[in-house]
Amino acid sequence: MARRDEIECWLTDMDGVLVHENQALPGAAELLQEWTDTGTPFLVLTNNSIYTPRDLSARLRSSGLNVPEDRIWTSALATADFMQAQLPGGTAFVIGEMGITTALHEAGFTMTETNPDFVVVGETRNYSFEAITKAIRLILGGARFIATNPDATGPSADGPMPATGAIAALITKATGMEPYIVGKPNPMMFRSAMNKIGAHSENTAMIGDRMDTDIVAGIEAGLHTILVMTGISDDAEIARYPFRPDEILAGVHELLSTDLIESDEI
């Protein structure tokens, strides 16, 4: 496992690591700038499949973070990448928003409601009972079942709301078919991200705030793992799991080069 001073490429989660409730976290803007100035390959990862990279880049910009759209890797992009490798030029029935439909179109897929090769369930704010019923019937008719990510709930201004994992579970109950889930904690999402920037596991680190997605997937992908405490994890949460990250930091500000020099001198 690489030490931090051997890391040449970086993958980082977005929410809870770089931003919290649309506010940049301390050190995030400086770290992204440092990577950009030094030509360090990096990608910002998110399991959210609602938005396109262009949308997310604009949202991050409004939070004070400069992340070009080609530096963003979503579960929708990873799903399209996986499906293109499985069946180039295939067809799909999609429950989801622009993030997943755009990614699939750009990967050469055709959207159809008639005998699709795949049924793809992604994040959406408007799950339709009619669309879920159609998905169930298509899967029972032989379509392969894919979900962009396993998150059962997502945040909203009024509290938690059902997300991809919850809708996929409903379809599983009705069909007896489990989806193949591409997003975190599937390490495939990290492998496809590394392929995009030409990175190798021996010299790549993953920064995340969740033990059950970011850290476990990073470990399984053979990456140097860094847990930051600016998201949902606390000491009690960390202690629940049988695995540990390589490093636990207060936040990404501790990764700035000045902090690295100081920690090396200790």
From TrEMBL:
Pfam families from the UniProt entry: Hydrolase_6, Hydrolase_like
The keyword DNA damage belongs to this UniProt entry's keyword annotation: no
Alphabetical list of Gene3D superfamilies matching this protein: HAD superfamily/HAD-like
Catalytic residues (UniProt): D13 (nucleophile), D15 (proton donor)
Binding residues for substrate: K184
Metal-binding is among the record's keywords: yes
InterPro entries xref list: HAD-like_sf (IPR036412), HAD-SF_hydro_IIA (IPR006357), HAD_sf (IPR023214)
GO MF, any single term: phosphatase activity
Entry note: cofactor: Divalent metal ions. Mg(2+) is the most effective.
UniProt feature coiled coil, ranges: none
Assigned keywords, A-Z: Carbohydrate metabolism, Hydrolase, Magnesium, Metal-binding
GO cellular component assignments: cytoplasm
Residues reported in the UniProt entry to bind Mg(2+): D13, D15, D209
Cofactors that this protein relies on: Mg(2+)
Family per record: Belongs to the HAD-like hydrolase superfamily.
NCBIfam families in the cross-refs: HAD-SF-IIA
Name of the protein in its database record: HAD family hydrolase
Organism per entry: Cryobacterium roopkundense
Lineage: Bacteria, Bacillati, Actinomycetota, Actinomycetes, Micrococcales
